[in-house]
Amino acid sequence: MTFNQPTIDYAGLSPLIALVATLCVVIIASIIPRVGRFSVALLTLIGFATTAGLTIWQWGASENLVSNALRIDDIGSMAILIALLAAAGTVLLSLREPAAYTAGHGAYYALLIGSVMGMVVLAQSINLISFFVGLELLSIPLYVLCGAAVRRKESLESGLKYLIVGSLGSATLLYGFALIYGATGSTNFGVIAEELTSAQLASDTLVLAGVAMAVVGIAFKLSLAPFHQWAPDVYEGAPTPITAFMAVATKAVVFVAFARLLEQGLGELSGIWSDALAVLAVISIVIGNVGAIGQRSIKRLLGYSGIAQGGYILVGLVVVSTEGAGAMIFYLAVYALANLAVFAPLVARERESGFGDDVNGIAGIGRTRPWLAWPMTIGVLSMIGLPGTAGFIGKLFLIQAAVDGDYTWLAVVVVIGTVVSLGYYLRLLSAIWMEPQPDAPNTQSPMPVIAGGAPEADASAGGREEVPPGSSRCVLVVGTGVICAAATVLLGIYPEQLIQWATEAGEAITRAVGL
Amino acid sequence: MINLAIWLPAVGGLAACLAPRRAVGWVSFIFGLGALAIAIAMTVGYESGSGLQYLVDEKWLPDLGVGYKVGIDGISVFLVLMAAVVWPAATAWSAIKTPDRPATWYLLLAIGQSGAIGAFCAQDLLLFVLFFDLMLIPFFFLFGAWGKNPDGGLGASAATIKMMVFTLFGSLLMLVAAVATAFISSEGGSPLTFSISAITAQGVRDSSEIWLFSFFALAFLIKMPVFPFHGWMRDTYRSAPLPALALFTAVLSKVGAYGFIRVCLPLFPDATAELQDVMMILAVVSIIYGSVMAFSQDNARLVAGFSSIAQMGFVLLGIFALRADGLDGAVLQMVNHGLVVVPMMLIIAFLAERVRSDDLSKMGGLAFRAPFLAAIFLVVTMAVLALPGSANFVGEFYVLRGAFEVDITLAVIASLGVAMAGFYALRLYQLSMHNREIEADASAEISTGRGAILGALVAVIVALALYPQLILERVDDSAESQIAPAARSAGQTPATEASVGSRP
To answer: How far apart, in whole angstroms, are the C-alpha atoms of residue A295 and residue A293?
Structure first.
């Protein structure tokens, strides 16, 4: 009896290995008493930087890993890089975040790293099982992180809501996977694709039901309308840096995984799912844009606008082409930068204005805080897609892909959605530049007790004095916004390199994954 | 050189941010003068009848087929020059009394200039769309943050959001149409390109020409604005800060009209011919509507606003006569209106500042106390009402002559507009300058600095009145080549005998 030792491609797995190592180091470091929060955050950042470096090192690779469970290729790497960018931004924004104090810095950053690990697995998975494992690994730490600000009732509500709806989505997805497996007899995307072709299962009820449920499950995760109801509430309640992370990283990775599942696994059925996705895109664009109008909470507004942006990004999938995939990944990268450029000033204002994330909090900052006002302005302009910012190139790329794929009507829907979105995006800009700064309410409001907890529990939890006051003028927060805004403008003028990477990534998705 | 003409103002705006607070405007102004010098040099160096000049054709986004292609022909050269003349004038006007948040104000103004000049120079369809939107962004902030909240009607920020929604609705649809145009024209297997000359060569002969034309036309009509697409105009004009509004009216509305010439005529000749009647009727309705409304407004800003609707009606009429003489007149009229409306708006700004109201009934009685201002305003008024001898007269004459050859009825109705211009222009002058005296401070005369700015602009107006051939001669070749395909499609001869030498 011989035992064949499986070959393990350590180079291909190196990003994942680096993250696991970082996770261990951060947890251990955080229990050493003399290691402060800055060191923990620094270790996390170093881990992310290493992972990013290793991912870039593996750029251009195109092979299957771990007996066809994962696949390293350009589109996965691109998604991982976007997720790492968002995660690094989140670390910088979280340094003085109350949630990080109440949860403990070690646990907070470890959860974040765990979520990023899930993203790496998900972005590379070409197997239904690893897909699901990756998705859960990314979601579960997020449920906890959303509820990490235990002193705010909204945060706890947000965590719970996300947990329940997220579990529902996961369950639906898993059911769909089970049906697909039942029909094709395999969990591997490559085998599924082959079975669908050779066994002519394209009109098989079992497969179609499975695909429908899987699409619904993923639509829950992506907060595509009409499966979006959780998003505004969760976005509003979660600690703001975590909201930024969810809005950017989750979207990028799940979209890429979605593209992989659909094009590499279920490409045979593209005629069926692309129409369904077109409907989802239209509904998302309409509901997201209409819902965002009239919101006073900026996080809630961004939650709704994220639904609409998801609808735009979905157009890249609807057209089923390399251009579409490239446009999708380009838009995701650009969207990530714009989002961070908006969230960083929001975090800063939330801590200093006393208005929370209300629009009043950013009113008049064009006059008083230009270093916050400009990044936010540029971020919003990029989200609209106005020239001079990377968002314009992103919209152009998407519209080209749509027109090229004979979906010109969908491009028109995108454009009309954008016009509607002016109604709320411009209101943010007008608050920043055209309104006077309102008198601050009492900023020294006492910290509430742990929601639902006894006063004794609150006292024993400590931490009341731990959050340093006046932490708003933090260079790191402002710097994150400024850097992301600068990158947004730069990519609006010289997008060539990013377009090329996105095109390479788009080509990767159409390659058959092999068995 | 052309890159310098486009980007020097924006660079100046950024440089001015570093200047001390009181000097910001003047630094920006000096860069504006630099851009003007370049524009003059380009005009002098322009050789009539040899196509695009100062061409820069660089790859920008080869994967998406977009090139950085800029150049000027006989039509754009004068529009660039006009923009380069009026921009420093408005900049200097606002620099005399340092505005609130000066660095941002001048930076935004400068970006607007770069965007507008870029739009006139763009020879790549997508680059044109990009500049078209780029020039709009700074005006959103300028209007909203420095505007005032008028009594009744929308406040400044609401009005400017309304303006953005209207105009971006048009220009985003235009973006889709531009992409679709490029794809349709490359269907024969040629590589995807947005270069206007390449698309013209490949042709867009397709059933979709009509809707592509409509999307572009919608963007341009909203921008100009032309009746019935002027819904944003009233609120914006009531609240916007006047020096910025003057530039908006003078230059940005011309980019809309210019878009028809640059994009619609050569790319969609069949659709142009087919919709010629519709556009001419819109033009005539705008002329009449704008004139009547301008005559009945009490708000001086709205008089200027509605009169510009009427003027843009003339421009549209000239373009869609699809004859070289009509187009010559339209281009001349675009330049004229730009040069005239800026001093008019600035004078309104001065008057409104004096009586703290835009209401015409509160102004008046200035002619004796401020003779210099009154004289300058009189020249401007005469130009607005197109008195024979003014360049506006020549422009309107050419426009109407072109229109007469195509449709006599419409041309006759349009010529009523010439007479009505006399009504509203004289009424504006009378109510603001003559009339009874009002209680106001003793020194009513305009300050030397502001007088110099107005004087310079009026000198340009007078010079153009004396020698309009300067423009007509150079425009003619380009006008013919732009109009030829559409005219052929409409079954007209593009009137090659357009006798530019004989001045009426």
So the answer is: 6
